[in-house]
Amino acid sequence: MANMTESPALPSVTGSAWRGVRYFCTVRAGGVSTGPYASMNLGRRTQDDSAHVLENRRRLRAEVPAEPFWLNQVHGVQVADADREGETLAADASVTSAPGRVLAIMTADCLPVVIADVQGRTVGVAHAGWRGLAEGVLEQTLSRLQAKVDGDAQWQAWVGPGISQPHFEVGADVYEAFVGRDSRTGVFFAPRAADKKWLADLPGLARHRLQAAGVARVELSGCCTYGEPERFFSYRRRPDSGRMVTVAWLTGK
């Protein structure tokens, strides 16, 4: 389960302590935005006052060791290497092995996923909506991380706040995107016979994919962005919603 923390001072959600890695997901509290974006909206693509977003980002920056490595997220599987100068920013995941380099992913129902080796030598973050998850964004992120460490490594992951199964109604396209590739994923879909739709367990699907790829330790936050409106933004609950940010970095210790 996720832990609410005041360290960093900005209200946030995090998971278990990892050797050599810090990570957290912001919540709605702690910012200056108003209306549907109240208060810690960090998304520049929203209709929020740009001055408010900049102030919110300034507050985030004060709690991390460097300016975050921001991405232009496109619901794909591209993984950017934050250690390579001039690397593309049109991606839905990023990786680093440089201490103090801050990775960032924005979400508002999709899953933010942090992956690291247990020795704290490399870390990655991924934006996993159903499309990216089905197409392999987590596996691609893990592959890029594996290329950064020598020898065998053990892996761990934290699946942050996202929409939960009771609120995530999907159609046949989403069902087939998973079950058509892997029949074992059928257990993560609860059928609604009346309208031929399903309720999809997105965090469960993420854990299944991670474990199948070789990530032995997977922790789910247990937080639902749709069902906890006071704590989280949710695009499905309100399209003119703000965005949370999940950040992660290596401490070098």
From TrEMBL:
SUPFAM superfamilies assigned: CNF1/YfiH-like putative cysteine hydrolases (SSF64438)
Catalytic activity: adenosine + H2O + H(+) = inosine + NH4(+); adenosine + phosphate = alpha-D-ribose 1-phosphate + adenine; S-methyl-5'-thioadenosine + phosphate = 5-(methylsulfanyl)-alpha-D-ribose 1-phosphate + adenine; inosine + phosphate = alpha-D-ribose 1-phosphate + hypoxanthine
Gene3D superfamilies per the UniProt record, alphabetical: CNF1/YfiH-like putative cysteine hydrolases
Taxonomic superkingdom: Bacteria
Lineage of source species: Bacteria, Pseudomonadati, Pseudomonadota, Betaproteobacteria, Burkholderiales
GO molecular function: copper ion binding; hydrolase activity; S-methyl-5-thioadenosine phosphorylase activity
Record's keyword annotation contains Metal-binding: yes
UniProt keywords, alphabetically: Hydrolase, Metal-binding, Transferase, Zinc
Protein family per UniProt: Belongs to the purine nucleoside phosphorylase YfiH/LACC1 family.
Name the UniProt record assigns to this protein: Purine nucleoside phosphorylase
